[in-house]
Amino acid sequence: MSAVEQGALHAAAPAARPKTARRVPLVARALETLLVICLFLFMLGPLIWLAVRAFAAVWFFPRMLPNSWSLEWWRTVFDSPQFMHSVRLSFEFAPTVTIISAAICIPAAYAFSRYRFPGRRTLLISLFATNAFPKFGLYVSMAGFFYSLNLMGKFLGVVIVQLIGTIVFMTWIPTAAFSAVPRSLEDAARDVGAGPLRVFFRVTFPLAAPGILVAIILSFLAAFDEAQGTFLVGVPNYITMPTQMYTLVIDYPQQVAAVFSILLAIPSVVLMGFARKHVMGGRLAEGFQIR
Amino acid sequence: MTAAGLNIESVSKDLGGRTIVDSLELEVEAGELTCLLGPSGCGKTTTLRMIGGFLHPDAGRVLIDGQDVTGLAPERRPTAMVFQSYALWPHMTVFKNVAFGLRLRKLPRSEVTERVERILELVGLTHHLHSYPARISGGEQQRVALARALVLEPKVLLLDEPLSNLDAKLRVRVREDIREIQQRIGITTVFVTHDQDEALSISDRIAVMSGGRVEQYAAARELYREPATTFVAGFVGAMNVYTGTTTGEGIELADGTRIPCAELTATGGEFTFGVRPEDVQVTADGRGADATVVREVPRGHYKELVLAAGENELRAFVGSDMRLPERVRVSFGRVLCYREGVLQHATPAAVE
């Protein structure tokens, strides 16, 4: 880095000695900016390309921008009952799965955090097993099982297969959130006259809420983006947005896939923004700085 | 509020296979402030948590105002606890923290506001009403915790090492404040601490605990003057401890050193002797055993002398301007005689 700076310096201002002291940070800053731009392009480039693509009518190499623009592809997607059906299905499955997952996992998380029972650690760690193995192998063996239970191509079957991907988030994050609430805060609430249920809803839950919210968002996205298991179990009755992508990539012009990708990304962006606003900043985060 | 007495009747508690509290007996009179004093692991916090209802005794009974509360959950007991960490709810303002218990009792809003404001005035915290706990200082958090406990007008106030998170200067001030408030409203109070200074300066009576039992339960002066066991003698204040026998006019230590002591009338046999450093009389050439000054430690308004008499080390407190030669004479003004750890005899005989 310093060799480059030196070289740049000499090329730029060989005569102006007094100015060199100010030029070093200038060059460093230029390199810094370049690096940031590169990183930015690396991360956002594909997304920008995707966004441009979604509005392109004709786009021939080597042009930087499309030859002509169009909203045709958006119309194709919004007018197609098949596509809109998959959008609706996705927005049915993801909330259903999230609610069921929360109903099962949050009480479990509370138990993991507050009670010492035999097999607690083993159980907690074994939840990772669902993420440790190649998912597709797991789904294929599940499919065999589902056939015998008559769950293939059923709503419930899809819900179950999507649940698997959410369990780790929904258990581990709330467990940590509950554990971060000091026991003495609960004792203090008991002491002034609150029964166990009231203690949970007025003290423990509000204090663990930011963590639980993060878990809910991550679970929603995991369910929303789940493609492999949903494809295997749901086809042909339940084609959600991610599984629709398989068909799109093969059967339609690239622009339709681009439009669909953008639609698929909307919940992630909205929810992440929500999480940032309500969890990272503000009073809730501040409240955790308790001694 | 009417003051109520507290009785603990042979309460025991095992935790993790270890006996933490062992048939403990304690009686706190109405309006009295009792300290549970002892080293960590002596069972004092466990005892407090059993009074508050957070732990259930394996045996024995807890009575408040003559009523058996042993089986009651914390929310049903007339006790209020100030926690070591204060345990303020970080998502509620100071006002809401204090008002929480009153609101649970479905009191009218105006009465809640009035009582909260009155109690916050008592602890001197009327500003900060709408601050969150994380925004106020440690001393102020401590006051909020105290106000939250007092606002419910409990019969017994429980304090679990409430000053251990404060710095030294503040600790002295806050403990005086706590004592003053306690006296003003006359509430029966149990105060857990491992700091003997704290215990000696604010309590009516102190229960010194060790191994889950009360070693001695007495007022500060008696505890200091006549520690009932060698444990109490060693734990409360400084103490020289020796083994030896009594002679006609003093004691003879294990190595044969004889140190005179007026009025020591205990009959012969082996004793463990305890002598407070202020009861070691040091003179340049008076009556007494020969000793040499090993070290002088200035302590402000007095100084501590480390002396050697034969093979024994003695610590003595003398005036800070007292000038002494290297070779001195020592005698004891007051000796406590213990046999098998229990006080047998003290000179002069009794505390008036």
Give the helix/strand layout:
The complex is a heterodimer of chains A (291) and B (352).
Chain A: H1 2-12, H2 17-54, E1 56-58, E2 68-69, H3 72-79, H4 81-114, H5 120-126, H6 129-132, H7 135-149, H8 155-179, H9 183-191, H10 196-225, H11 228-234, H12 241-251, H13 254-280, H14 282-287
Antiparallel strand pairs in A: 1-2
Helix pairs in contact in A: 2-13, 3-13, 4-8, 4-10, 7-11, 8-10, 8-11, 9-10, 10-13, 12-13
Chain B: E1 6-15, E2 18-28, E3 33-37, H1 44-52, E4 59-64, E5 67-68, E6 79-82, H2 94-104, H3 109-122, H4 138-150, E7 156-160, H5 168-185, E8 188-193, H6 196-202, E9 205-210, E10 213-218, H7 220-225, H8 230-235, E11 240-246, E12 250-253, E13 258-260, E14 270-275, E15 280-283, E16 289-298, E17 302-309, E18 312-319, E19 327-332, E20 336-339, E21 342-346
Parallel strand pairs in B: 3-8, 3-9, 6-7, 7-8
Antiparallel strand pairs in B: 1-2, 1-4, 4-5, 9-10, 11-12, 11-14, 12-13, 14-20, 15-19, 16-17, 16-19, 17-18, 20-21
